[in-house]
Specification:
Order of helices and strands: HHHHHHHEHEHEE
Shape: globular
Number of helices: 9
Strand content: 5-15%
Oligomer: single chain
Distance between the termini: 35 Å
Helix content: 55-70%
Largest sheet: 4 strands, mixed
Strand order of the largest sheet: 1-2-4-3
Length: 271
């Protein structure tokens, strides 16, 4: 179920939505990178698993860790100023330390299996951490008329990405765009069933953040790499959004067309 956030101002509501969408993108990228480690380990590809683990660690150092640091100096600091937020923020800070330890664990892994286990643990902890931020920290802040979340996020790209505009609206990731097609529906990967690619089951992702999660996963794919997406319906609006967002970047092949799931293989053709 999607969380309902009651904001004291429209600007704060937009700011909270932007943070949640950026969280979804981070979760999608982490899910893809962690699954890439697991997929390589499962097929006994030690070199591939080590490379996927190195890619995961590099992304964490470039994106996830700066995001956590930015939160601590803005959202967490504001939440901790309220009596009911102090213990919550202490717990969130402890989880940041756990996340950093798991990143180091993946970095230090000497076998594919230990890298895969560390990557999976990192994904589970991070997803749970983001859920608390979305359902506990953000509602606490936006409900307080003495705290302006929009002001806290001013210039904070690490927290909200590049789609948020305080005076307007964050780019919406829902199923509102007209049906269309991503670039080509012929897969150039040579894998008939997409078995070599990590899989993202979007059916388990809340609708409000589903597209943002998928965008995050797709952003993490290198040229020549791919992703198998499992969707609850034929994702034509999503394909149109992807093509507008990254024109010509992906080829797409349907692997299954319903009735309970649609499976599509995305292969990145260009950066």
């Amino acid at each position: 179920m999607d969380a309902l956030v009651i904001a004291s101002t429209e600007a704060d509501a937009r700011a909270a939505s932007a943070v949640e969408q950026h969280h979804a993108q981070l979760a999608g990228t982490l899910a893809l990178r962690a699954e890439s480690v697991r997929t390589a380990a499962a097929r006994g590809d030690e070199q591939g698993a080590r490379q996927a683990a190195a890619d995961l660690v590099a992304w964490c150092e470039q994106e996830l860790v700066p995001h956590a640091v930015a939160e601590e100096s803005t959202l967490y600091a504001a939440a901790r100023s309220r009596p009911e937020g102090r213990l919550l923020v202490d717990g969130m800070l402890t989880e940041h330390a756990v996340i950093l330890d798991l990143v180091r664990e993946v970095s230090a892994a000497t076998t594919a299996s230990t890298a895969a286990a560390g990557a999976r643990a990192l994904q589970v902890v991070f997803d749970n951490h983001l859920a608390k931020e979305n359902t506990l920290v953000l509602p606490l802040l936006v409900a307080d008329p003495d705290i302006s979340v929009a002001d806290l996020l001013e210039g904070m790209h690490q927290l909200i990405g590049g789609d948020y505009h305080p005076e307007g609206h964050a780019e919406h990731s829902g199923d509102t765009s007209p049906a269309g097609h991503a670039s080509g529906h012929a897969c150039a990967c040579g894998e008939e069933d997409g078995a070599a690619y990590p899989e993202l089951d979007a059916r388990a992702v809340p609708h409000a953040i589903r597209h943002a999660t998928i965008f995050g996963a797709l952003d993490g794919i290198r040229v020549g790499g791919g992703l198998v997406l499992v969707a609850p319906h034929d994702p034509q609006p999503l394909l149109a959004q992807i093509e507008r967002r990254t024109p010509g970047a992906f080829s797409v092949e349907y692997l299954q067309r319903g009735p309970d799931a649609w499976r599509l293989a995305f292969v990145r053709q260009a950066g």
